[in-house]
Amino acid sequence: MMGVECKSLQIIQTVRELESVLNRDFRMGKTVGFVPTMGFLHEGHLRLIETAKEHDDIVVMSIFVNPAQFGPGEDFESYPRDLENDIMKAEKAGVDILFIPTAQEMYPSDSGIRILPGPQADVLCGSKRPGHFDGVLKVVLKLFNIVDPDRSYFGMKDAQQLALIETFVRDFNLRTQIVRVSTVREEDGLARSSRNVNLNASERLEAPSIYRALLIGAENFDAQKSPQDIEREVVELINSNTSGEIDYVTLLSYPSLTAITKDSKEVILACAVKFTNTRLIDNIIMSTKDGFHVPNDDEQ
Amino acid sequence: MMGVECKSLQIIQTVRELESVLNRDFRMGKTVGFVPTMGFLHEGHLRLIETAKEHDDIVVMSIFVNPAQFGPGEDFESYPRDLENDIMKAEKAGVDILFIPTAQEMYPSDSGIRILPGPQADVLCGSKRPGHFDGVLKVVLKLFNIVDPDRSYFGMKDAQQLALIETFVRDFNLRTQIVRVSTVREEDGLARSSRNVNLNASERLEAPSIYRALLIGAENFDAQKSPQDIEREVVELINSNTSGEIDYVTLLSYPSLTAITKDSKEVILACAVKFTNTRLIDNIIMSTKDGFHVPNDDEQ
């Protein structure tokens, strides 16, 4: 009988095998934590694994560059892949089961049934990537059904993705708990991203100004400045301290991603900035409880 | 500790209570069979329960008139309800758990995330009910997540609904097995339906001709007549034997609901006929294996 005794990394490539290894009846009360990724693992992913290991008995990571979430003209083909390195990193970080399906294994057939996000997908990065979040919700629903995790771990850097997934789980009673994991940053505050290597030397020096601008925005939010004034000041700070071109700087309720009201329990201040060869995103999510904010990176 | 020891009917109205009663860790290896309904139970529903009891240890039935699957101008308000009678019938039939949520309990919030069916929803009854199957897929996904059934039971009378749900389960790896249950018929062959009471006396006498026409269509399919000829003959038979107005008579691959090809493994011959105060649907699903068909009502 297949069980879930995991002494070392187990690599699984088919849905059928993963489902049988993770069968609820064989779990013996052990909890499963799930970390879905597109591979090319960096510190941010390792933080997800670390957090999963704190809460769950068995940690499952998936590596799947999901074609359904790339639009025409986007970088599906050139998306960075380094499976050998990823496997070593996953094993070292203590992943128990690594699920690496092919696209054929994940999408053997397509009837055209789609999951369409609501207005949450029309703001921030979603406004520039039509169809992107359809593909995200599709793969997430499939992976949740295959793995059946007790908890699933997502980074707060992809805040819009996290907002949509939290909402999908809530509105469709999906059987997993979503755990938010803080953005991992360089010592100078720049959010870790595989895209940072595409910054040139002077851009790399400027880039931490993005997060510094967001922190000032957060202070201004605490000081009860208006959303317009907060956004304007962040825009000015980024413009005067970097050579990048601002895509957006936006303050919204979180995770609804609608305009802020006095009932907003959480808010997000998010931005995207284009540099010569790459585009960076960053954000701060703040609780409005008791009139104070709690930045997502409060342990920094 | 709440368990799933079910000596008599247990009525549950909240998602939270149902989830805790059906918690996988408390099931002790017992299987759960699920029968989703909109209530006003008739013989067809009782057959679903009976089949579930043959396969599963615990039978859960839901009664929920799902507003999301009624379009504007459809009969959500006037849809027949008789909860007291339903509870008696469910208890007598041996249902273990009856889930009766309110609309507020099922849809406490709406972010606008929708599940859109593909072209399967554009034929047969779906062509006249835009948005209907969005609402069906939404409630089905929610109920599957809440109940987490090993098997779920659906009647073959609602063949398009069944086709869509089978496809949704396949393409999104939903964690339940779909069991098809044959249409229950009156002695004269008329498919059981709560709508049959709306036929007037002469229509009631004519109505069995619908199924007889479908059976002749099935014979013609076996005799390898063309889809066009098969459909035409069924139309002629219904027209000459009833006063009803034909909405459609259609032969398609099943469950894809696309045009028949030589690779079709199953086909459906389906029709809808309007009478004075009601509209009846019926169908025959045939396997094409070994060149023979197997009507879905072969035990009749």
TrEMBL record, chains A, B:
Pathway: Cofactor biosynthesis; (R)-pantothenate biosynthesis; (R)-pantothenate from (R)-pantoate and beta-alanine: step 1/1. It is found in: Cytoplasm. GO terms for molecular function: ligase activity. Beta-alanine binds at residue 69. The keyword Nucleotide-binding applies. This is Pantothenate synthetase. It catalyses: (R)-pantoate + beta-alanine + ATP = (R)-pantothenate + AMP + diphosphate + H(+). Catalyzes the condensation of pantoate with beta-alanine in an ATP-dependent reaction via a pantoyl-adenylate intermediate. Homodimer. Belongs to the pantothenate synthetase family. The keyword ATP-binding applies. It comes from Sporosarcina oncorhynchi. ATP binds at residues 38-45, 155-158, 184, 192-195. The active site is at 45 (proton donor). The reaction proceeds by a bi uni uni bi ping pong mechanism. InterPro entries: Cyt_trans-like, Pantoate_ligase, Pantoate_ligase_C, Rossmann-like_a/b/a_fold. (R)-pantoate binds at residues 69, 161. Its EC number is 6.3.2.1. Keywords: ATP-binding, Cytoplasm, Ligase, Nucleotide-binding, Pantothenate biosynthesis.
